[in-house]
C-alpha cells in the first residue's frame, strides 16, 4: 500500500493544523472587516488588511458542490473509489474542499447539511465531512 499524501504544514497554516489535531475546525476572521477567511493567509482578501485572527468555526455547513471520483487521484486512493469530494460552504460563509464520508456516493445532493470530522493520519488530522442528520 502506498503512503497517503499529506498537506504541507508551514507557519501560515500551522494554527489550522494544530486546531485540527485537537478536533477543532479553525478559520481566520478579519479584525478590520469582520469577514471569515479560508484558506489560511496573511492578508484579508476582502479588505486587504493584515488583521487576521484564528477563531473556531461551528463545523457545520452544506454541500455547495461535489464530484464522485471513480478513478483514484493517486495510488493511496485506489481502494477507496468511488469516493466523494465536496465543496462545503461553512455556516461562517467560507468554502472548504474535502472528502465526504458516505455509504452511498449516489445519495449525495447539493444543499445537504454536513458536519466536520477528522481523520488522524499520525502526522496531521485532516478535516473530512459527514452528513448531518
Brief account:
The protein has 133 residues and is mainly β.
How would you characterize the overall build of this protein?
By secondary structure, the protein is mainly beta. It has a single domain, classed as Beta Barrel (OB fold (Dihydrolipoamide Acetyltransferase, E2P)). The strands form two sheets. It has a five-stranded mixed β-barrel with strand order 4-5-6-8-7. Strands 2-1-3 form a three-stranded antiparallel sheet. A hairpin with a 5-residue loop joins strand 1 and strand 2. It is globular. It starts with 13 loop residues before the first helix and ends with a strand.
* CATH hierarchy: architecture: Beta Barrel
Figure out the total of helices.
1
Please state the CA-atom Rg, rounded to the nearest Å: 15 Å
Pattern of helices and strands? HEEEEEEEE
* Strand segment count: 8
CATH fold node name: OB fold (Dihydrolipoamide Acetyltransferase, E2P)
Given the helix and strand composition, which structural class is it? mainly beta
Shape: globular
Poorly predicted sequence stretches spanning 5 or more consecutive residues: none
Q: Which percent range describes the beta-strand content? A: 35-45%
Rounded mean pLDDT score: 96
Amino acid at each position: 500500500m502506498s503512503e497517503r499524501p499529506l498537506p504541507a504544514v508551514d507557519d501560515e497554516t500551522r494554527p489550522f493544523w494544530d486546531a485540527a489535531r485537537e478536533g477543532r475546525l479553525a478559520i481566520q476572521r478579519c479584525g478590520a472587516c469582520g469577514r471569515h477567511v479560508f484558506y489560511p493567509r496573511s492578508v484579508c482578501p476582502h479588505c486587504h488588511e493584515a488583521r487576521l485572527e484564528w477563531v473556531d468555526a461551528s463545523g457545520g455547513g452544506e454541500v455547495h458542490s461535489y464530484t464522485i471520483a471513480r478513478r483514484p487521484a493517486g495510488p493511496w486512493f485506489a481502494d477507496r473509489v468511488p469516493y466523494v469530494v465536496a465543496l462545503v460552504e461553512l455556516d461562517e460563509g467560507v468554502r472548504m474542499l474535502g472528502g465526504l464520508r458516505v455509504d452511498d456516493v449516489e445519495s449525495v445532493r447539493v444543499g445537504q447539511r454536513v458536519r466536520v470530522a477528522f481523520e488522524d493520519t499520525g502526522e496531521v488530522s485532516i478535516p473530512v465531512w459527514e452528513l448531518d442528520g
